[in-house]
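Holo model, flavin-adenine dinucleotide. Inputs:
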Amino acid sequence: MSKPLLLVLGDQLTLSLPTLEDAPTDAVVALCEVKEEARYVPHHVHKIGLFLAAMRHFARELERKGFTLAYSRLDDPHNTHSLVEEAERLAKHHGCDEIRVTRPGEWRLWEAMRQRQEAVLPWRLLEDTRFFTTPADFADWMRGRTQPRMEYFYREQRKRTGLLMEGDEPAGGQWNFDHDNREPLKGRTHFPTLPHHHQDATTRQALADAARHFPEHMGDITNFNLPVTRRQALSDLRHFIAEALADFGRYQDAISDREPYLYHSRLSAAMNIGLLSPREVCEAAERSYYEKGAPINAVEGFIRQILGWREYVRGLYWTQMPGYKRENRLNARRELPSFYWDAKTDLRCMNRALQMTIDNAYAHHIQRLMITGNFALLCGVKPEALCDWYLAVYADASEWVELPNTLGMVLHADGGLMGSKPYCASGKYIDRMSDHCAQCRYSPKQLTGTHACPFNSLYWHFLERNAERLQDNPRMKLIYGSLNRMSDEKRDAIRQQAESFLRRLTPEKGYGLPCHTRGYQRS
Ligand code: FAD
Ligand code: SF4
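Output:
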């Protein structure tokens, strides 16, 4: 009879985890706080605080359920601070003869664990059942497709799960209500305020430990307000459904100079670490449509993000790694500008998105995609620099979801697997969707000159630079038509404007260094 060590990772905090199923009575459950995981990129201190607090609360819940626990704290003098080594140390210490673990969120760890399968102490790797699909399901769906598209994958998931389906037909008569979901805020000033979560002694100690161990990392722990228990996460879910869901759709693409959350759910971190299941979140939204009359464009738009995009990026990640991480089809070579770490820039839209990130370890999707992401795309920032940044600064960041979004959706570095065209935009788009420009020293209406919005010249410069790769894309024909009709003088002036701006950008100075100096090998 085997005595397993059941290793539960920091983003697997749920009792229905496959690792915990059918646990023999003498099994030991292990949770490990290790510095290697907090430092391989310099994670935001809120993110580290979230993991520490949620892991410690979950450990108590496991104890209450009668599990025998082995918990390695950051301060434990015997802690090896490497996840794999620590699990093996604990297994040996407790006389276990195998280690069981559910698929982690990063290929790097999966590979390290797979390589240990033949070691003296065998590792048993289990599939993660907390998603709607497994990597094998996605590989089946991908088979034979040269141009996979999220939309078709999503429709199949709707049919498979029955979510928002009425017989064989989609609820509301359409699969997609995106055309109703593009309104700017236009003077709206009142938004739902997030619940304030009580911090008990466990949470306070975890947050203090995060701040003490990682003082050089981004963020100030004093304004931490993420849910760290299932109960707190459920309270955020109820709040979103009651207060924000109805307006989620129409303002999904809007950006505010003042408000970080708008009508977004801020449920990603809770879902990603296991406090909420994606199925219960989708079902809560669906109930709100059938029982409370929530608008279909909002409910469908929300479910699409989780059942569609979230599953799709995970499928791409696991079927395309490890090669995916090395992709750089637009040959981008620039270092990340230093202001990504301190928000010191006079581009108002960038300053606000970055400052909100520093304050909350959160920015909503359009800030990530159309502000900080778009800027990096236009400047030609190299994928590994931008990916490390997104992985470090957001509380919800895990490589399975961050990488396809950054490398694929934002940088178009995968040649179009994630998106059929790059999401590049000029200042005109940002001006239409936000109230930033009225407060900026630059003008979104000017293309060249000292007050011209840098996004404008960078936009055309990006298109010109990448013409060979992009101009035959049917969705970009129109814009390349406009570029090609410009006079040579105008194109020269734009090029000079953009190049002079790019020359003035200061590359980051070592903020991302921990991963390189610590010998973290990019896979
Ligand atoms: P809402 O706007 O309320 O959306 C509801 C849910 O849908 C989210 O909680 C999330 O689970 C899911 N979702 C929405 N869009 C996406 C998407 N494109 N991919 C996957 N799931 C999605 N999301 C992460 O969870 N972790 C990341 O590390 C991450 N990195 C990103 C990096 C970039 C460059 C971009 C453009 C997007 C990234 N996203 C990431 C996706 C998305 O921006 C966040 O999920 C979302 O902003 C989280 O806020 P929310 O919970 O308020 O989302
Ligand atoms: Fe951003 Fe340009 Fe608008 Fe300034 S003018 S806020 S830089 S888009």
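The longest strand covers residues 28-32. The pocket of iron/sulfur cluster (ligand 2) is lined by residues 347-349, 427, 430-431, 436-437, 440, 442, 444, 453-455 (CB under 6 Å).
Archived with the compound record.
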